[in-house]
Write a structure and sequence with these properties.
The chain is of the alpha+beta class and 205 residues long. It folds into two domains: 2-47; 64-204, Nuclear Transport Factor 2, Chain: A (Roll). 46% of the residues lie in helices and 34% in strands. The chain has helices spanning 2-44, 64-84, 90-101, 106-117, 120-126, and strands spanning 47-52, 55-60, 130-141, 147-158, 162-176, 187-204. The strands form two sheets. Strands 3-4-5-6 form a four-stranded antiparallel beta sheet, with helices on one face. Helix 2 (64-84) runs antiparallel to helix 3.
Amino acid sequence: MFQPTQNIDTAFRAMRMVMLVVIVGCLCISLYALYQNVQLSARMQDRVYVLSNGKAMEAVASSRTENLDVEARDHVAMFHHWFFTLDPDEQAITTTITRALYMADGSAKTQYDDLVETGYISGIISGNVSQQIHIDSIRVNTTAAPYQFTCYAKVQILRSTSLVTRSLVTQGNLRNVSRTDHNPHGLLIEKWEVTENKDLKIEVR
């Protein structure tokens, strides 16, 4: 009479143990899945996908210090490109100079005003002169802000009768500012000055 009761009690305890193991196992699997989901979300936040020409490219986020040297050199290069690339068209000159002035402080505006006052800009337009710059090298000291830089370049001035090549050396400082559409690197050129601007050669066309 007691044997069936003992069998039922034993089976009940065995079933309860199995259910407990199943519940604990499900709980462990759920916690592991939740942990992996949190880790995946954290990794995905460090990635940005950029759409370029119909193709999605992954951009991995990094701290500013990792790319500061590259960004600083590119900022200086782009500023000089916009400032010194001139064509005999007033609207084109205004467009490129405006882009350059977004990347620098009043020292660049002072240099441009001097070019206007001396008649250099009007001479570009009236003489159908084209001017291009070729960057040789850019040195930036990023160990401490403000970051000092020196830019070495050559400027070619194309006239109807000649091609003039000039050696150009400029220097200044860089400081951190907010990133904008007009200033994507988040850097601003300060105390910019031209330390050398001399003719290297003149070729007759």
